[in-house]
């Protein structure tokens, strides 16, 4: 998708001023956070499981070549095929080629962030193939031609009344008197439409939460069951997955699953956990005739050797954005590309360039709540800081900020001079404030005073007063 | 160190130094009452976070080295700020991780650095203090103190012993106030959205006074509350604990009694 990350500040400004968005985001704050907290509290070993999950991924990443080769060998042994794709273009072309070979006209899709990352829908559409999103949230945003605003709840930026309006606009056959004001009614309507699409599809595309090296299986976790129909009904199943989804064994999967749903939605387990291993075997009741895994690198193997390696542990649960005050304020679209929230602010600069997405790692208060809830214990604030370091090194930091910083640092490194300057500052600021004790307007401090008053200093610095007190004691 | 009277170097913090020296004197009073000999090394300015968090590691290291030098030889280093104490404890060792000379010094400094209320309770074993504050307060957990240093119960324990004080918890006391250092001026609209939400929580608590342990957060919240015309007064927790909360609160008008000093 086209990035608007460069316009992050404008995006954010528009987002905070959008009352509908603010209403919708209220649900993120309440629902996800409380449910996760309760789910974690109910499980005494939750913290230990987080450690175990982190260790599994660390081990896998340390031997990723080994596990990916083992995975590929198992997929082949089960009659499937793995297509190694260096970048998004290669992955798109691979998917298109498979679809063309299958003579596909309609493709159903389960939810896949890799699908978003490589922009598969636009590519298929441009080539005369109709992709149909079957996850409810994805279906809604496909109608609206919008990208997802959250990695597990793609339409979380919308309220029910907006969705009803979209359905009425796109489902022209809906009688005006038909009620669509309840969530249940919206789900039923989407299901009715999607049922025919499932049956008509020639190819089904899903994502993958895990690729299991031991068995060659791909695993998806969903709550709607649409993923199962997407992958079992069409003749061809394509799995879109990135390298870091690999895990050694099914036992490892079960450990990580115990933290995944709890961190994401507060469920103990998602409604469906679906394991796919190769195409339909003789005697199987259902399943596709062809099973393809499109395995995407897109810079991840290089990321392994960088200071951002830990981010590859991510299992896309969304807990970091659910708990992020910045995400709560602006929602997912303002980030300007596929992955929003704290993890997005780490991944996006890597995937589309820090020149384009340089604002994202800076737009954090470093409050640390993301790291505190991340089931994989990814040190997100530290990774954001690493991006700021890269930006500073490459002189991508705005010149004004850079010089301001240099000037301040030069002063901070000279305590005597620093004292003299701060003593003057304290007096000037206090004088500027007059008798009010705070200022509402100040040159060069518009960023602060546009929205809040600036408390005035007490008038003399601590070090001045301390020195005076010690002189007093001495005399 | 004499076992009963440790030498404490006070890390004043740049914001306390410039904006609210009375907090520094409150910290000194609390530390002295807890049996410490307090000194204030003159060669300190700032902990270096503005540089560190802007990706400027060279300046961050230079400023950190200055702090390492200035606070050499103290039994403890105490800061009336979770953010600055967190910088010294969590981040200095990382800044010098591969430095054979300053690495060990940074780790040694980290081990003896504390946020004020956590030092009083966790190290000095203070559970009760003699102070009086007539009114209801609500306490905001600053992010670095809470999540980097585990400061949560310590200030509440101490506040519980203040005569006349009632603690009325606000909702989401552990959620960021939107300050974030330079964040608040780089992304003013986002910061404002976050601090507005925080201000609503504070007002909804019904408390007359907001307390916290970090000047940055306090100035941000005070500035927002005052812009909204809220009646809540805002103070650093040390002022209340030290019984030095009778001067003007943060951002409050002059004409009242001058601050102690």
Keywords:
heterodimer, A: 475 residues, 3 domains, 6-stranded parallel beta sheet, 4-stranded mixed beta sheet, 11% strand, B: 261 residues, Rossmann fold, 4-stranded parallel beta sheet, 13 helices, globular
The gist of it:
Chain A has 475 residues and is α/β, with parallel strands linked by helices. Chain A has helices at 8-16, 19-42, 46-62, 64-77, 88-101, 113-118, 120-126, 136-144, 160-170, 183-200, 226-232, 250-264, 300-303, 319-322, 325-330, 341-352, 354-357, 359-362, 369-373, 380-393, 399-412, 415-433, 446-449, 462-474; strands spanning 81-85, 106-109, 130-133, 203-206, 210-212, 217-222, 236-242, 246-247, 272-276, 290-296, 438-439, 454-455. Chain B folds into 2 domains: 7-122, no CATH class; 128-241, 3-Layer(aba) Sandwich (Rossmann fold).
Secondary structure elements and their pairing?
The complex is a heterodimer of chains A (475) and B (261).
Chain A: H1 8-16, H2 19-42, H3 46-62, H4 64-77, E1 81-85, H5 88-101, E2 106-109, H6 113-118, H7 120-126, E3 130-133, H8 136-144, H9 160-170, H10 183-200, E4 203-206, E5 210-212, E6 217-222, H11 226-232, E7 236-242, E8 246-247, H12 250-264, E9 272-276, E10 290-296, H13 300-303, H14 319-322, H15 325-330, H16 341-352, H17 354-357, H18 359-362, H19 369-373, H20 380-393, H21 399-412, H22 415-433, E11 438-439, H23 446-449, E12 454-455, H24 462-474
Parallel strand pairs in A: 1-10, 2-3, 2-4, 4-7, 5-8, 7-10
Antiparallel strand pairs in A: 5-6, 6-9, 11-12
Helix pairs in contact in A: 2-12, 3-12, 9-10, 16-20
Chain B: E1 7-10, H1 14-19, H2 21-33, E2 37-39, H3 49-52, H4 57-70, E3 76-79, H5 82-95, H6 102-111, E4 113-115, H7 116-123, E5 132-139, H8 143-149, H9 153-160, E6 163-167, H10 183-186, H11 188-205, E7 209-212, H12 215-227, E8 233-236, H13 237-241
Parallel strand pairs in B: 1-2, 1-3, 3-4, 5-6, 5-7, 7-8
């Amino acid at each position: 998708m086209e990035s608007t990350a460069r316009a992050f500040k404008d995006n954010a400004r528009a987002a905070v001023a959008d009352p509908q968005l603010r209403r919708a985001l209220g649900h993120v704050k309440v629902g996800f956070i409380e449910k996760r907290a309760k789910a974690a509290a109910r499980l005494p070993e939750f913290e230990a499981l987080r450690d175990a999950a982190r260790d599994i991924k660390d081990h896998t990443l340390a031997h990723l070549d080994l596990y990916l080769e083992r995975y590929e060998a198992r997929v082949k042994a089960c009659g499937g095929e793995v297509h190694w794709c260096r970048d998004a273009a290669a992955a798109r072309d691979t998917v298109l080629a498979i679809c063309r070979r299958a003579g596909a006209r309609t493709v159903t899709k389960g939810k896949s962030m890799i699908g978003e990352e490589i922009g598969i829908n636009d590519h298929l559409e441009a080539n005369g193939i109709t992709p149909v999103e079957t996850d409810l949230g994805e279906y809604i945003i496909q109608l609206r031609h919008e990208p997802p605003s959250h990695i597990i709840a793609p339409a979380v930026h919308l309220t029910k009344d907006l969705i009803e309006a979209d359905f009425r606009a796109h489902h022209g056959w809906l009688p005006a008197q038909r009620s669509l004001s309840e969530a249940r009614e919206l789900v039923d309507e989407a299901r009715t439409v999607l049922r025919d699409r499932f049956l008509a599809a020639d190819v089904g595309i899903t994502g993958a939460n895990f690729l299991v090296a031991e068995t060659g299986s791909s695993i998806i976790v969903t709550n709607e069951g649409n993923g199962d129909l997407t992958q079992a009904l069409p003749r061809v199943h394509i799995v879109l997955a990135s390298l870091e989804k690999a895990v050694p064994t099914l036992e490892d999967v079960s450990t990580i699953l115990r933290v995944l749903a709890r961190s994401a939605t507060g469920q103990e387990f998602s409604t469906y956990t679906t394991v796919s291993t190769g195409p339909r075997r003789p005697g199987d009741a259902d399943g596709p005739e062809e099973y393809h895994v499109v395995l995407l690198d897109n810079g991840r193997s290089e990321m392994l050797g960088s200071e951002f390696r830990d981010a590859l542990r991510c299992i896309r649960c969304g807990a970091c954005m659910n708990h992020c005050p910045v995400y709560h304020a602006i929602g997912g679209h303002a980030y300007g590309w596929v992955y929003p929230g704290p993890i997005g602010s780490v991944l996006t600069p890597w995937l589309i360039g820090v020149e384009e997405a340089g604002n994202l790692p800076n737009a954090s208060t470093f409050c640390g709540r993301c790291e505190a809830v991340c089931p994989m214990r990814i040190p997100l604030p530290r990774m954001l800081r690493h991006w700021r370091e890269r930006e500073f090194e490459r002189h991508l930091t705005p010149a004004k900020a850079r010089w301001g910083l240099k000037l301040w640092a030069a002063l901070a490194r000279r305590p005597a001079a620093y004292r003299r300057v701060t003593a003057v500052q304290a007096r000037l600021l206090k004088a500027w404030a007059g008798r009010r004790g705070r200022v509402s307007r100040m040159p060069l401090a518009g960023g602060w005073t546009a929205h809040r008053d600036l408390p005035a200093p007490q008038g003399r610095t601590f070090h001045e007063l301390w020195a005076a007190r010690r002189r007093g004691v001495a005399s | 160190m004499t076992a009963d009277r440790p030498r404490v170097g006070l890390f004043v913090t740049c914001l306390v130094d410039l904006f609210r020296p009375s907090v520094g004197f409150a910290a000194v009073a609390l530390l002295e009452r807890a049996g410490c000999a307090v000194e204030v090394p003159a060669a300190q300015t700032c902990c270096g976070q503005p540089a560190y968090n802007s990706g400027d590691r060279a300046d961050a290291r230079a400023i950190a080295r200055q702090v390492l030098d200035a606070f050499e030889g103290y039994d403890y280093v105490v800061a009336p700020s979770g953010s600055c104490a967190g910088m010294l404890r969590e981040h200095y060792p990382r800044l010098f991780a591969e430095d054979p000379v300053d690495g060990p010094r940074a780790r040694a400094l980290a081990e003896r650095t504390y946020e004020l209320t956590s030092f009083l309770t966790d190290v000095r074993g203070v559970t009760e203090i003699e102070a009086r504050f007539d009114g209801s307060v609500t306490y905001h957990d600053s992010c670095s103190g809470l999540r980097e240093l585990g400061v949560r119960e310590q200030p509440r324990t101490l506040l519980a012993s203040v005569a006349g004080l009632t603690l009325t918890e606000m909702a989401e006391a552990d959620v960021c106030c939107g300050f974030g250092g330079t964040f608040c001026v780089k992304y003013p609209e986002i910061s404002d959205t976050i601090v507005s939400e925080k201000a609503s929580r504070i007002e909804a608590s019904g408390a007359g006074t907001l307390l916290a342990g970090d000047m940055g957060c306090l100035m941000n919240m005070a500035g927002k509350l005052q812009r909204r015309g809220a009646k809540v007064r805002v103070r650093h927790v040390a002022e209340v604990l030290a019984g030095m909360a009778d001067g003007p609160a943060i951002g409050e008008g002059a004409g009242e009694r001058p601050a102690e000093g």
